[in-house]
Amino acid sequence: MEKNEMPRIELYKARSFGDKLNATFDFVRESWRPLIKYLTYILLPFSMVACLFLSTMTNVMLDFSYSQFVESEGVFFVKYMLFLLVFVLSSIALYASVYSMLQLYYSRPKRLQGLTFREFASSLLKNCKRTLVVGILSVLFVILLLMIVIFAAIYSYYSLIITIPALFAVILPLTYWYSSYLLEDISIIDSFKKAYRLGFPTWGGILLIALVIGLIIQIIATVFSIPWYICLGAKALFFDSAEGGSAPVWINFTTYLASVVNVFSSILTSSLGIIALAYQYGHAADKIDGVAIDKDIENFEKL
């Protein structure tokens, strides 16, 4: 370790709530350059494509009073489905990118310093596949839970008093599934079991981290969304239902750029939540399974 180099942030370590937040922001502060660099490489194109569809949808909504309704409705639906597709793909890329950064941070002697795109891409491809698997299975699992809640509600509305809180309690530990499968060398079934084995005892910690980090993300996203709303308001002034007016090219382009900043900043700040939940997972793994102690014993035996 160099003289002025910060000690590596431990992943598997039981922490207080404040220490988990500190670990999250310490990781971002130490690795912000490669984080922003590679997240921009991967996620900015998704943001730009998504905003093309978003621009069309806003035009349809502003133009609905004099456009042919059937045509506008069809365009809006198609663009909305394409927007959702890009959103899903960008979410997969975001999770895979952040977990690749975490893996490389702990596997490389120099952490993320001097990280090349080839190293990053190799890890990214593998994690995209694993993220896709967890994502699909998570959606299917949640649909199954929702079906149980619906069937119970059909039988008796009073069942919702129990099933809704139970649904929330069961879904929350599912957030560990990404960390257990992407950070551990275990099967998808074992990672699911581990997510719930660690998730239920640390349920409160997951909720608290999600609320606080979610609030921070929302505040940042709101700030970056203001220019887009201003541009959208200015654009709306040029639409006249009687004359069929349209906004000048420069306003359309400025609105598009503002929407790219809005969407990209939202995606980028969402990485905070993924990192925070990874350290929450590390906290649970050490607290319940004593992972940090096991690693210390393993290192001692190698001496």
Label this structure with key terms.
single chain; 303 residues; mainly alpha; 80% helix; 0% strand; disordered C terminus
Number of helical regions: 9
Order of secondary-structure elements: HHHHHHHHH
| Class by SSE composition | mainly alpha
Strand content: under 5%
Any idea what the shape is?
Answer: globular
Largest sheet: none
Quick check: average pLDDT?
86
Roughly how much helix do the residues carry, as a percent range? over 70%
Count of β-strands: 0
Q: How far apart are the termini? A: 19 Å
Q: Radius of gyration, rounded?
A: 23 Å
Low-pLDDT stretches are 65-70, 296-303
Short description:
The chain is mainly alpha-helical and 303 residues long. It has helices at 17-62, 69-107, 117-155, 160-171, 176-183, 188-199, 203-236, 249-289, 291-302.
Account of the protein in words:
The protein is an all-alpha fold and 303 residues long. It contains nine helices and no strands. 30% of the residues are buried.
